[in-house]
Amino acid sequence: MAAYSNENPFASTHSLDANPFDDPEAQQEAERQARLQELSARERDLERREAELNQKAEHIRVHGRNNWPFFYPLIFHSIKDEIPEASQPLITRLYQLWLVLFGTLIINFVACIFVLVAGSSDGGADLGASIGYCFTITIFSFLLWYRPIYNGYMKEQALYYYMYFIFCGFHLLYSAYMIIGIPSTGSAGLVQTIKMYGGGHIVAGILGTIATVGWVLQGAGNAYYYREIWMHHKAAGHTMEKAKGELATHGAKAYFTRG
């Protein structure tokens, strides 16, 4: 009589067919391999981006020259040549928002002239402050939040992202301050605009309305992209430790260099 066997004749001898839940070690090994593959893919992507940036930097070093601002070039600014293709639309939008900010500062200045002409007791203070904003905010906004995030996406270094988050955060608060438009603050925002319409100063009111719309547009736009950039920054794995290491390695001169 043949011996009875408990072995299942339909059981597969291939390990790939085994249920991973029956073997915790196999499941852990599979997860480890998946993580290794993900890290390897990310490393290859970083190497590819580094090669592209080096190639672009060399091209710019040989062929490029300072081109911004156009009337007195001080720096090289080319989103097409320096920013990875996938990030070019975002940086383009941020640059456009900076241009909206610049235009809003000019309109705000003109509006404050009309506020002074309208006989406002705070007109002199408003005009003086608005002139100061045209110079200081234009320059500092470009250098302290637009240029850092431009460099951040160009070089993918954590230091620039933290600079952007700090100074663009202050800029968002400043935008809210200018939208309100308290008299004597140099803003032709809401309060100032309503005051001008109420006094029958239509031109000053219209200019104040345009300035207010400009403050809202660039403020809301920057707030939206601030969130988008924060999500990218987290996904990229940037940390304060990395930022400190980059500052120690490259120093402040990295702000002014390409590649």
Question: Which key features would you list for this structure?
Answer:
about 260 residues; mainly alpha; 8 helices; about 70% helix; Scamp-domain-containing protein; SCAMP; membrane; transmembrane helix; transmembrane
In short:
With 259 residues, the protein is mainly alpha-helical. The protein contains 8 helices and no strands. The longest helix has 40 residues, at 24-63.
Describe the structure.
Its main location: membrane. It is a multi-pass membrane protein. By secondary structure, the protein is mainly α. The protein has two domains: 35 residues; 172 residues. The chain is 71% helix and 0% strand. The longest helix is centred in the N-terminal third of the chain and has 40 residues. 26% of the residues are buried.
Percentage of residues in strands: under 5%
Shape: elongated
Order of helices and strands: HHHHHHHH
Write down the domain tally. Answer: 2
Radius of gyration: 28 Å
Residues in helices, as a percent range = over 70%
User: What is the β-strand count?
Assistant: 0
Oligomer: single chain
Please state the average pLDDT score. 88
N-to-C span: 81 Å
Q: Main sheet, how many strands, which sense, barrel?
A: none
Q: Helix- and strand-based class?
A: mainly alpha
Model regions low in confidence, pLDDT < 50 over at least 5 residues: none
Can you count the helices? 8
